């Protein structure tokens, strides 16, 4: 927790906040960060005239400063039935990550919102700011229930419509959506959001240890696939998984989003302290 | 309700039901596994299928087993058979030799059993009846068992079970082997009976399959068409030591002494040593070691001659006796290792002379050394004949000296002059001054008798029936003849002795002696006959409807009843050995039935038969199963593979 305290959210974009905060925003405003000059027009505040330039050029230029604003951290956590699978389960890892990121967010006076989604957004906790919200955050993460199928696009649509505020959107999910992830993510890819996708896969998903003649049953929609496990099939599965993740990463990169693949057996702490820092989400 | 092919149904059920259950279990056993998403798996499967349409067959034991099981079922559906035999419907006649030599045990259990087995194999190998065949013509088989006589055990049929039963029912015999009757029967049955069976008559003649060792007496007299006969030689080696001849008889001089003569023959390529046991009334009298030479090549350079050895035993006894000789070496053929002979009780000739007084004849008969000579007149004879002669036969020979008698009890007669009435001999008139023109000097009755000097002043012109045996002829008619009528034997002399110069000739006494011996021998032949297997045993002169019991090899207390004419007949003594006939209140009679047959004792199987100069070679190999349907085995294999697969599968699931 103490180490998380040293972290803060970063956004590769400068996004508009709602209240004055600790983030530089595109809005020119009152702060100490110089941004630009512009020619004076009538009605401008004379306090921001750059007299030094006037003295040199005898022209009136106005000094522009970047306004510091707060940042909204929006965590989209997947609570569908599929996340309950895995040893350790993906749901646990997702909660840990949500807790860590949320903590980092509220501690640094960012606005933090958590949306749990399965078949659409099922629960939401919005506008949390400051250390006082930590307990509410924890309570939300403890009470949120896993279950139901996944409707990612629907959830994204709801999130965008809610207009909680522009900022960083972190998607915590296994990203294994039958409907595809592209439509949902495209809704998030807009100039308001800086999107990070943290794909969580259980060890069983990455290295299947199944054998024999099996009837694989999808935990969400009870879809079945009858397979006879063989080395060839497993290798095809791995290839498929790798290309799936690769495509996801390329998709994200193409749309300026961040992508991190994390195993559910990975340490949430290390991921937060190292990997996310390297990827630029935290600083 | 009947089942046309119940076995097929049972087979199908036995296979399909467990298979179905097994498949059900296999299906059920696919383990369910919950996973978070089937998305990637489906993609992987798709990829695998798309990327590798001809994927390398992986080492999957289950797949292999399934393929094998499927292959077995498919092969079973194809209906494979071991070897095709007999393409079209044909007709076959199985000729199975059941003669004595087929009892040889050089092939276990016996040659006949092997012949029957091969015959069965042949029947099994016939193409199965096609249920839905358009033409009704089917392969038909007939079975004939033959030794000296042929017996059709099964007429043409396509019913295998009937054929099997008929073949199984063939019993071994001890008879000689003659194929003539069997061939006649086979051809007679093979002729289409119905007039409309025109399509049958157009067919090839029925094929004959002979299962024999080839030791068949009458082969040279038979003829078969080209390829009509297939011969399956049965038998392996020729080793056999047997008795091929045996005779027991009382000595002519010393009638208490019985001489037994026998001949041993060795048909093996090595000399045979054995002990020969001689027993009288089942009491062993002596055992002698013998060593019989091996076979040798005959002077013609082709036929093999058996090594032979003669032996002689003798013993003294007044009583009737059963003599047996046994070769103690066990060899392939047992039937010729034992021979029996029945010796009648010592008995002096008893003669009845029916005469009106003939000193010459009386003295001549006395010279024959009879035990008893009773002289009586015709009237006395008639009186006795009606009472005593029916029940017992007190006289061996009755001499009729020119008398006319009305009753003729069954006996042996020496007749001089007037022949008895009712024996188909008529007197055609008187002859005068006759000489004997011709006579059969080698006949036992005329042995050493010189008839050149015989002059008959008067004689009878006898007209003999055709079956009479003429021994001597006058210039105009028969002088001496032998005639058999109604169980009696007559030696007819067509003249009165006293009307000739014969009493002064030594030939007359010789003639009387010969005639007595001949007739006495006829009497003993009637009672103590030595028989060959297959011959009937006949006893005559019994009271009407008398009960008798026959015991012998293969016969346990068979009850027979005499006919009204006092005749008991056992149709055939099938086996060599000693037969005993018991009569109520009389002495039992024994009959010796001996193989005594060189042809049958020579058990070497012939590889080539010669029928009327045409050679028939034995089939190279014994009949083996053909047309054996293999599908039941394949179905069984498929079942086994399924079970194995199940076992492997459950084993895998546990891992």
What is the strand and helix layout of this fold?
The complex is a heterodimer of chains A (283) and B (655).
Chain A (H helix, E strand, L loop, with lengths): L1 H4 L14 E9 L5 E6 L11 H7 L3 E9 L2 E7 L11 H18 L3 E8 L1 E9 L5 H10 L8 H11 L4 E7 L8 H7 L4 E9 L1 H4 L6 E6 L5 E5 L2 H24 L3 E6 L4 H12 L4
Parallel strand pairs in A: 4-5, 4-7, 7-8, 8-11
Antiparallel strand pairs in A: 1-3, 2-3, 5-6, 9-10
Helix pairs in contact in A: 3-4, 5-6
Chain B lengths: L5 H23 L2 E5 L3 H13 L9 H18 L12 E7 L13 H15 L14 E7 L3 E8 L2 H9 L11 H11 L7 H4 L5 E6 L16 E5 L7 E10 L6 E10 L5 E9 L2 E10 L3 E2 L6 E2 L1 E10 L4 E7 L10 E6 L6 E5 L4 H8 L5 E5 L1 H14 L5 E5 L10 E5 L9 E14 L15 E9 L5 E6 L3 E8 L2 E6 L12 H22 L2 E2 L5 E3 L7 E6 L2 E7 L6 E3 L6 E7 L5 E5 L4 H4 L6 E4 L2 E4 L13 H24 L1
Parallel strand pairs in B: 2-3, 2-5, 5-6, 16-17, 16-18, 18-19, 19-24, 25-31
Antiparallel strand pairs in B: 3-4, 7-8, 8-13, 9-10, 9-14, 11-12, 14-15, 20-21, 20-22, 22-23, 23-24, 26-29, 27-28, 27-30, 30-31, 32-33
């Amino acid at each position: 927790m103490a180490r998380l305290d040293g972290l803060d959210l970063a956004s590769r974009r400068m996004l508009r906040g709602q209240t004055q905060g600790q983030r530089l925003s595109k809005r020119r405003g009152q702060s100490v960060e110089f941004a630009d000059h512009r020619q004076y027009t009538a009605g401008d505040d004379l306090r921001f005239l750059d007299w030094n330039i006037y003295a040199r050029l005898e022209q009136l230029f106005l000094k522009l400063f970047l306004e510091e604003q707060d940042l909204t951290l929006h965590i989209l956590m997947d609570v569908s039935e599929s996340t309950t699978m895995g040893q350790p389960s993906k749901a646990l890892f997702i909660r840990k990550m949500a807790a860590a990121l949320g903590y980092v967010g509220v501690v640094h006076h960012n606005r933090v919102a958590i949306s749990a989604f399965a078949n659409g957004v099922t629960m939401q906790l919005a506008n949390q700011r400051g250390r006082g919200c930590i307990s509410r955050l924890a309570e939300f993460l403890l009470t949120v229930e896993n279950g139901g199928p996944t409707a990612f696009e629907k959830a994204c649509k709801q999130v965008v419509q809610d207009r909680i505020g522009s900022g960083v959107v972190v998607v915590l999910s296994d990203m294994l959506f039958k409907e595809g992830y592209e439509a949902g993510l495209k809704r998030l890819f807009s100039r308001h959001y800086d999107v990070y996708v943290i794909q969580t896969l259980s060890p069983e998903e990455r290295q299947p240890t199944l054998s024999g003649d099996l009837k694989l049953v999808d935990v969400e929609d009870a879809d079945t696939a009858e397979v006879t496990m063989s080395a060839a099939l497993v290798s095809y599965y791995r290839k498929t998984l790798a290309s799936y993740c690769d495509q996801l990463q390329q998709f994200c990169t193409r749309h300026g989003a961040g992508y991190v693949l994390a195993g559910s057996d990975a340490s949430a702490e290390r991921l937060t302290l190292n990997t996310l820092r390297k990827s630029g989400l935290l600083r | 309700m009947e089942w046309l092919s119940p076995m097929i149904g049972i087979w199908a059920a036995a296979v399909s039901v467990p298979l179905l259950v097994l498949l059900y279990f296999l299906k059920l056993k696919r383990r369910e596994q919950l996973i978070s998403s089937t998305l990637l798996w489906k993609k992987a499967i798709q990829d695998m299928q798309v990327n590798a349409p001809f994927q390398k067959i992986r080492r999957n034991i289950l797949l292999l087993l399934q393929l094998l099981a499927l292959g077995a079922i498919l092969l079973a559906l194809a209906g494979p058979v071991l070897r095709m035999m007999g393409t079209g419907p044909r007709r076959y006649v199985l000729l199975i030799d059941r003669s004595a030599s087929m009892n040889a045990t050089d092939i276990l259990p016996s040659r006949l059993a092997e012949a029957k087995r091969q015959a069965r194999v042949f029947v099994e190998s016939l193409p199965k009846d096609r249920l839905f065949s358009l033409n009704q013509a089917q392969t038909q088989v007939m079975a004939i068992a033959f030794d000296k006589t042929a017996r059709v055990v099964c007429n043409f049929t396509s019913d295998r079970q009937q054929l099997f039963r008929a073949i199984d029912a063939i019993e071994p015999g001890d008879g000689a082997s003659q194929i003539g009757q069997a061939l006649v029967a086979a051809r007679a049955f093979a002729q289409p009976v119905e007039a409309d069976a025109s399509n049958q008559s157009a067919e090839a003649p029925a094929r004959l399959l002979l299962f024999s060792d080839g030791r068949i007496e009458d082969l040279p007299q038979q003829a078969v068409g080209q390829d009509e006969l297939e011969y399956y030689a049965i038998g392996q080696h020729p080793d056999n030591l047997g008795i091929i001849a045996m005779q027991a008889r009382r000595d002519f001089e010393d009638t208490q002494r019985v001489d037994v003569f026998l001949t041993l023959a060795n048909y093996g390529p090595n000399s045979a040593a054995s002990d020969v046991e001689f027993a009288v009334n089942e009491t062993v009298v002596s055992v002698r070691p013998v060593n019989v030479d091996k076979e040798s090549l005959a002077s013609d350079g082709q036929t093999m001659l058996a090594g032979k050895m003669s032996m002689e035993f003798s013993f003294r006894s007044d009583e009737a006796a059963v003599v047996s000789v046994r070769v103690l070496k066990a060899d392939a053929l047992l039937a010729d290792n034992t021979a029996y002979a029945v010796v009648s009780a010592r008995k002096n000739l008893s003669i009845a002379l029916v005469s009106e007084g003939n000193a010459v004849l009386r003295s001549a008969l006395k010279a024959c050394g009879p035990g008893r000579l009773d002289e009586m007149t015709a009237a006395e004879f008639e009186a006795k004949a009606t009472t005593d002669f029916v029940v017992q036969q007190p006289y061996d020979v009755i001499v009729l000296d020119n008398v006319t008698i009305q009753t003729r009890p069954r006996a042996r007669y020496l007749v001089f002059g007037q022949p008895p009435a009712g024996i188909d001999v008529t007197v055609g008139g008187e002859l005068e001054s006759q000489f004997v023109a011709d006579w059969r000097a080698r006949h036992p009755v005329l042995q050493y008798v010189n008839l050149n000097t015989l002059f008959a002043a008067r004689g009878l012109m006898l007209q003999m029936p055709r079956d009479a045996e003429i021994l001597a002829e006058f210039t105009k008619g028969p002088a001496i003849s032998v005639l058999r009528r109604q169980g009696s034997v007559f030696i007819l002399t067509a003249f009165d002795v006293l009307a000739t110069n014969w009493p002064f000739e030594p030939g007359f006494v010789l003639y009387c002696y010969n005639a007595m011996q001949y007739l006495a021998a006829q009497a003993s032949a009637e009672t103590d006959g030595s028989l060959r297997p297959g011959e009937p045993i006949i006893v005559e002169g019994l009271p009407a409807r008398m009960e008798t019991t026959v015991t012998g090899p293969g016969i346990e207390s068979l009850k027979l009843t005499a006919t009204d004419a006092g005749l008991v007949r056992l149709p055939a003594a099938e086996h060599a050995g000693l037969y005993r006939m018991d009569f109520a209140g009389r002495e039992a009679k024994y009959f010796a039935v001996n193989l005594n047959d060189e042809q049958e004792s020579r058990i070497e199987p012939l590889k080539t038969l010669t029928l009327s100069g045409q050679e028939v070679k034995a089939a190279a190999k014994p009949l083996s199963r053909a047309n054996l349907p293999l599908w039941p085995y394949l179905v069984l294999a498929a079942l086994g593979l399924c079970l194995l697969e199940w076992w492997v599968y459950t084993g895998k699931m546990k891992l």
